[in-house]
Amino acid sequence: MSQSVETTKLDTLAQELAAIQQTSSKRIALLGSRHVPITHQHLIEMMSYALVLSGNQLITSGATGTNSAAIKGAMRADPNLLTVILPQSLEKQPRESQEQLQQVMHLVENPENDSLSLGEASALCNAEIISRCQQLICFCFHDSHTLLQTCEEAEAQRKVVTLFYFD
């Protein structure tokens, strides 16, 4: 039994090392909290800009804060390498986000989730984003339950997960 566990850990480690060392472009999901200080938003924007400028495809959602900063950076680098998946329809997004989202070439709406709470719709949206990526970068707080659950789901699917905490 312990040999099976050790083999699984070695397989996981080997997969993670291979993903980290991969030099070709990747599909990277960048998600995070809406409640982000402006200085952190600038850092997230620069990170997404650099990731896309390096040829990576960036996948995010449409919320304010982290996701908005990721969109801004990716749009500056190469709008064609950005995909934004919304938890609900565009009309259900905050007014301040709608103008930015209308500029996104690859925008996926989920109007079938309009009757759900934002939390329920966000969990479904995050699951879709995880299914499309190879790696997840997440910015959250220790009490960001939906985002932390998304990270756990990504790890269960053997995705490389990088988690940054604001607190």
Corresponding CATH architecture: 3-Layer(aba) Sandwich
Spatial ordering of strands, largest sheet: 4-3-2-1-5-6
Specify the biggest β-sheet. 6 strands, parallel
Distance between the termini: 39 Å
Q: Roughly what is the average pLDDT, rounded to an integer?
A: 90
Q: Strand share of the residues? A: 15-25%
- What structural category arises from helix and sheet content? alpha/beta
Beta strand count: 6
Q: Radius of gyration, Cα only, in angstroms?
A: 16 Å
CATH topology: Rossmann fold
What is the succession of H and E elements?
HEHEHEHEHEHE
Number of helices: 6
> What's the number of domains?
1
Ranges where pLDDT stays below 50 over 5 or more residues in a row are none
* Helicity level: 40-55%
Name the shape in a single word. globular
Overview of the molecule:
By secondary structure, the protein is an alpha/beta fold. The protein has one domain: Rossmann fold, CATH 3.40.50.450. Helices cover 49% and strands 17% of the residues. It has a 6-stranded parallel beta sheet with strand order 4-3-2-1-5-6, sandwiched between helices. α6 (145-156) links the parallel β5 and β6. It is globular, with a radius of gyration of 16 Å.
Detail the topology: elements first, then pairings.
Elements: H1 2-21, E1 27-32, H2 38-53, E2 57-60, H3 66-77, E3 82-85, H4 95-101, E4 106-108, H5 118-132, E5 135-140, H6 145-156, E6 160-165
Parallel strand pairs: 1-2, 1-5, 2-3, 3-4, 5-6
What attributes characterize this protein structure?
6 strands; alpha/beta; 17% strand; single chain; 6-stranded parallel β-sheet; globular; Rossmann fold; 167 residues; DNA recombination-mediator protein A
